[in-house]
Please model this.
Amino acid sequence: MPPEAGAAAHFRALESLYRHAPVNGLFESRLEIVEEGYARIAFEVSEAHFHAAGAAHGTLYFKMMDDAAFYACNSLATDRFLLTTAFNLLFTKPLRPGPATAEGRWASGRRRVFVGEARIIDAAGEEAGRGTGTFMRSHIALSGLPGYRP
Model:
């Protein structure tokens, strides 16, 4: 089978980049870039992510939604790594132990600044959080990053 080309190769390389980022060793998660402008992260919520009142801390919400929106947007930029410049969160439901999914979608922008949206869906299929982020094209070439393997 020939190696993937074009957009599909870029998507697989971004998934590899996610797997190789040291911070992702702290989370049981898997990124899938489904199509241009849409990324999904399947992850496990565990008690290790809890705050003192027994539900997932906001850092988990931020991490997963930021990454989902970021990768949805970076799926449109094949040359440069994007950087998060802002992210707004809305917490709608506490996350309990079990599987969850962060879905990210590109909303607008393609030149210098991208806008992405994300939401977290819990194991019951209910939304637990939603967010919007802005991501700016950096001077960092994707091709020079360890883990980015088209």
About this structure: The first helix runs from residue 6 to 20. The domain at 6-144 is CATH 3.10.129.10 (Thiol Ester Dehydrase; Chain A). The chain has a mean pLDDT of 95.
